[in-house]
Amino acid sequence: MNAAVCIGLTLAVALSVLLMLPLATAQKTAADVCMDADTRDKTRALMFEGINVALVHHTERLFDNLMKDRGNDPERMTRGMYTALALYARSRENLLKWNPPPCKE
Asked: What is the CA radius of gyration of the chain?
């Protein structure tokens, strides 16, 4: 995959996870997306893949910056990685809770 596709996928996943946060506590409305179980599972798998790709790319960027850092500040990378891991875990948790209603036939 080229960089533009990876960045686009990462942004789309991040946006979708952020948008899911309010849906977890909001009341269901007619505007909510409905889908069958198979579509939900495939969608969830794609979103998990996007979250994983985002963490890999973030880790690569952090390490690349560490290698270029003349100040030799590995604590900066460690803080960035802890933040990324916390967001990764929260995103996966929210994605597991995501359960769109089945479509009415």
From this structure: 17
| Residue 55 φ/ψ region, left for φ over 0, alpha for ψ in the -120 to 50 degree band, beta for the rest | alpha
Q: Tell me the C-alpha distance between 95 and 44, whole Å.
A: 7
Residue 30 has φ and ψ, to the nearest 5°, of -65, -20
Q: Give pairs for 59-66: CB < 8 Å, separation 24+.
A: 59/84
Q: Which of 42, 43, 39, 51 has its CA nearest to residue 92?
A: 51
d(CA 69, CA 85): 22
Domain-wise residue ranges, the chain: 3-97
pLDDT (tens digit per residue) in 64-83: 888 887 776 778 888 989 99
Residue 57, C-beta contacts closer than 8 angstroms, at least 6 positions apart: 6, 10
Which residue matches tokens 């889908």?
35
User: Per-residue pLDDT tens for 33-56?
Assistant: 889 999 999 999 999 999 999 999
Residue type, 101: P
